[in-house]
Amino acid sequence: MRILVVFTGGTIGSTKTDGVISPDKSNSYLLLDLYEKFDSSVDFVCVEPYTILSENLSGENLCLLYDCITANDFEKYDGVIVTHGTDTLQYTSAFLSYLFGLCKIPIVLVSANYPLADKRSNGFDNFRAAVDFVRAKLGKGVFVAYKNYGENPKIHRASRIIAHNAYDDKIQSVFNEFCGEIVNGTFTKNIFYGEKDDEVKITLPKQFGETSDVLKISPYVAMKYPALTSETKAVLFEGYHSGTLNTSGRALNEFCQNADKLNIPVFLTGACKGFYYESKKLFDKLKINVLPPASPIAMYIKLWLLKKDKINDVFLSCGGDFLKN
Questions:
Q1: pLDDT tens, 17-34?
Q2: Statement: the pTM of the whole predicted model exceeds 0.85
């Protein structure tokens, strides 16, 4: 079995010195040394487009990663493993998921909650799970392999994972519908998992760069809304727990009116059909477009990737982001 390993840094590729965790290129290969002692039958080919802590991720890094992966002939590999930091894992996983769609071989992202030298680290378990999943030959597209404390390693569809809770390193999928799990080295599919076929192909836009032209807003009580400009391509609200916003307040109404004047579409993620509060009745009036259930971070990345004249393609499934009806 031959696997392309793409090192990008993050905690899984870092060491701790004098209490400070820093990227360490030599530490990346420690992961392969550990696996070699466990199983010497896998041929790993390594590339390293950049080495950063993932909180420093930008659009430029995402482009470098995409170019690095696409420069390789997939026919020569059984799978691709990308090592990454946990802080922005959801962003990169969604980015790759949309650009590669349901590609023929699995691309699996792995990370670690602590540096590999720390006994608490799940980095090796995650990497081993990724290799086991590649070996199973049961997945097309992009995935995330991650072991939460006290659980079997889970295999998540990369466009489905949601943001971490505060002070918690768990990785979870929308509605906990992970793709499957690794049990004693064997992939077992989750019988409740389902996804729609790709309805749209997304390509990397030329203007994709360091910063985004999508404004992502999380509501808070008594919030003051930011100013809009003609350079804003779209607005994405991540609603409260119930998919709600303060529609009775003057601030949101004025914000949506300004967006309409500037021809900036406004979207909302986090709302479910059939779960209506009185506040939601004004969404249509405010021209707030409610997205299907999906990872809010994935919806942000999807809007960022879409060209302005194709912005409504955000409602079409791609890369396994939407649940099967």
A1: 888 888 887 777 888 999
A2: yes
